[in-house]
Amino acid sequence: MVNRRNLLCGMGALPLLGARSLWAGTTHQLGRHEIYSVSDGNLVLPGSLFFDGLPEEELGSILASAGVARDQVTPPCNLTLLKQEDRLVLFDAGAGPAFMPSAGTVLDSLGTLGIAAEDITHVIFTHAHPDHLWGILDDFDEPVFYQAEHMIAETEWRYWTDPNTVDSIGAQRASFAVGAARRLQAVADQMTFFKDGDEVLSGVRAHQTPGHTPGHTSFEIRDGGQALLVGGDAIGNHHVAFARPDWASGADQDPDLGAQTRTRLLDQLVTDDIALLGFHLPDGGLGRVERTDTAYRFIPEGT
Ligand SMILES: [Zn+2]
Description:
alpha+beta, seven-stranded mixed β-sheet, binds zinc ion
């Protein structure tokens, strides 16, 4: 199958091979699974989205110790790539060309690993927000990962393809709803669905982690006693989310449910000694969760 994407990719891919310095990611060997973090660039967002309504004094000291500004945040976007037998699995698709100029770089990052879009066999979604979903279509509205089976939680699919969602979600997120519905419909014939607890691929289990979105899902990749959680946005940053997981976040569609999910997940990651790859966590997003006197901290791999 030759389409315009193919031609553009073919012309652009070669100079990137071997340019590993572009790839701000990390590798993690987990038994038979090879796991990479691949960068999709970063977002630029107003701090008010995350921080308004929180107790400013305690917030100030958490942000100061993390070196994060109150007025603007620039969270990285880390996609997870899983190499498994003859599969190349991408968790989320990135932001694509239409969301933010600082994001949408995942095809370049994959190129530095010698991987082209058509090599991807599966794209598995944590949720359908723009920075995770919009990368499935290119500038010409054609599927980017056209050889891949796409997989999403039934609950997430139903929510974003429901024609009522655009009216019920609130003005701030209405464009998310329009954008998600259009893109999901465009790849409907590539899409398959899973439920909470399903083993979506060998060694990869879906865990519903709702709050950020109604059908948000994290994925446990396991081989024997070793495991890593592809967390998506259930633990959405390395500062407030770890220091005060119980605080409601304006970034979550259901802030109270998001806080409950985050609190439960952090405890589980420490208790069960599971590594974490967080979509918006620093240094490639791959690391471990540690308990502190009062809450938790994120320890990036290699530090
Ligand atoms: Zn996100």
